[in-house]
């Protein structure tokens, strides 16, 4: 009998896309649907990005490109790093891929043998666990509940690291929670990591230019520069520049890791297209007014979401200070009913909310925290206000 590879039994579709697809189907069927589900920024880049893409098409070489990424893209990323306070990186330390997800897959493929242990603070972005499971890694989740503001503590990390621990996956600002680590929190975690020289750290920083409330962008490498030889910085143009569909992910790290990325690229994607590369270079090198404006806009939307949630008795939501997500604990609804529909858990909650009110959210269990739901607040302002009103109404109707 013909069979797929055993690893495909460990693969599953993205839980976020399952919710988004259901919302799309209901909308196509004529339902009035407001989606708080998928994590897209919902704005477009500046005209200079499109001008660069058009120019690249007009001068297309028709040739293969570099497995590492075009020099212009690497240099633009290096400038981006220096502007963020990261010094000492050269082309040999960086590489590009088809979005941060493909970059992450490559990194975990390069670092983890089957059975190796990966530490993942929880809540986590769904693909962290999905990819690690496909690769046959041994996953250790580090629960960071709302009682500790969804953040990993230094003491918790220190207690979790064992001689067998191979990789820590660290995300700041966080998807799904929107939480941002303060400089003192980053310093404490970096001090722990300095005591464990055999542990690789993948630092998912793709929301690094979406930080609110005047907070600085603290980072493990800036706190302890000696960590540079085993911390890999993951970045992307998707969130900052409103370009998720262009699929450009980037890494900076030790030379051997960057070279591993190049080798893996040579065996599947080969290179990023010229037009995509040109657009990414223009985004990184060009005016930054749109990202700054959108960051301020998302901070205002965050405030609207928090105000609406605070008006619902029993719902609590640690204050997000980055990205464009809120992650409220809605467990006060569990054990209740909406009409004749029982709400036993987060999945029941999201299904009932979508069916009754046409509001799509992602169950927190998709991110490892079943008491919560994720709200992505990047939709149109009027839709955000109306969607939040419907959420409040849904809670008011629970019995």
Describe this protein with a few key phrases.
399 residues, alpha/beta, Aspartate Aminotransferase, domain 1, Aspartate Aminotransferase, domain 2, 2 domains, 7-stranded mixed sheet, 3-stranded antiparallel sheet, 13 helices, globular
Q: Mind explaining what this structure looks like?
A:
This protein has 399 residues and is α/β, with parallel strands linked by helices. It folds into two domains: 6-44 and 290-396, Alpha-Beta Complex (Aspartate Aminotransferase, domain 1), CATH 3.90.1150; 47-285, 3-Layer(aba) Sandwich (Aspartate Aminotransferase, domain 2). The chain contains 13 helices and 14 strands. The strands form four sheets. Strands 2-8-7-6-5-3-4 form a seven-stranded mixed β-sheet, sandwiched between helices. It has a three-stranded antiparallel β-sheet with strand order 9-14-13. Strand 3 (117-122), helix 5 and strand 4 (138-143) form a beta-alpha-beta unit. Helix 3 (71-83) packs parallel to helix 10. The model has no long low-confidence stretch (mean pLDDT 95).
Number of helices: 13
Number of strands: 14
Q: Give the low-confidence spans.
A: none
- For this structure, the CATH topology of the largest domain is Aspartate Aminotransferase, domain 2
Spell out the helices and strands N to C: HEHHEHEHEHEHEHEEHHHEEEHEEEH
Give the overall form.
globular
CATH class of the largest domain: Alpha Beta
Look at the structure and name the CATH superfamily of the largest domain.
Answer: Type I PLP-dependent aspartate aminotransferase-like (Major domain)
Oligomer: single chain
Radius of gyration: 21 Å
Strand-residue proportion: 5-15%
Which structural class do you get from the secondary structure elements? alpha/beta
Give the rounded overall mean pLDDT: 95
Taking the alpha carbons of the first and last residues, their distance comes to 52 Å
Helix content: 25-40%
CATH architecture label of the largest domain:
3-Layer(aba) Sandwich
The tally of structural domains comes to 2
Question: Main β-sheet: number of strands, strand sense, barrel status?
Answer: 7 strands, mixed
């Amino acid at each position: 009998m013909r069979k797929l590879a055993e690893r495909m039994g460990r693969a599953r579709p993205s839980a976020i896309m399952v919710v988004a697809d259901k919302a799309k189907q209901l909308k196509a069927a004529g339902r009035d649907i407001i989606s708080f589900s998928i994590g897209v920024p919902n704005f477009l880049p500046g005209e200079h990005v499109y001008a660069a893409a058009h120019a690249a098409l007009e001068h297309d070489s028709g040739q293969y490109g570099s497995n590492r990424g075009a020099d212009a893209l690497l240099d633009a990323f290096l400038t981006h790093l220096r502007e963020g306070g990261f010094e000492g990186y050269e082309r040999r330390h960086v590489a590009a891929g088809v979005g941060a997800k493909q970059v992450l897959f490559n990194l975990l493929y390069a670092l983890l043998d089957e059975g190796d242990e990966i530490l993942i603070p929880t809540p986590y972005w769904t693909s962290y666990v999905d990819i690690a499971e496909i690769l046959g890694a041994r996953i250790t989740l580090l629960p960071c509940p709302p009682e500790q503001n969804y953040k990993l503590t230094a003491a918790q990390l220190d207690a979790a690291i064992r001689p067998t621990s191979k990789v820590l996956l660290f995300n700041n600002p966080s998807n799904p929670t929107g939480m941002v680590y303060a400089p003192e929190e980053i310093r404490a975690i970096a001090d722990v990591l300095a005591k464990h020289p055999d542990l690789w750290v993948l630092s998912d920083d793709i929301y690094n230019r979406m930080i609110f409330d005047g907070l600085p962008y603290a980072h493990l490498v800036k706190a302890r520069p000696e960590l540079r030889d085993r911390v890999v910085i993951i970045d992307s143009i998707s969130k900052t520049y409103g370009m998720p569909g262009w699929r450009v992910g980037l890494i900076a790290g030790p030379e051997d890791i960057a070279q591993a990325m190049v080798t893996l690229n040579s065996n599947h994607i080969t290179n990023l297209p010229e037009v995509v590369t040109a657009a990414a270079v223009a985004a990184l090198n060009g005016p930054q007014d749109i990202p700054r404006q959108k960051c301020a806009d998302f901070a205002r939307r965050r405030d609207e979401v928090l105000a609406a949630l605070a008006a619902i008795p029993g719902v609590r939501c640690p204050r997000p200070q980055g990205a464009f997500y809120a992650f409220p604990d809605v467990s006060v609804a569990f054990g209740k009913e909406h009409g004749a529909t029982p709400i036993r858990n987060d999945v029941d909650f999201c299904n009932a909310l979508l069916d009754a009110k046409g509001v799509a959210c992602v169950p927190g269990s998709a991110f490892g925290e079943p008491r919560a739901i994720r709200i992505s607040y990047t939709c149109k302002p009027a839709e955000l206000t109306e969607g939040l009103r419907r959420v409040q109404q849904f809670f008011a109707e629970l019995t």
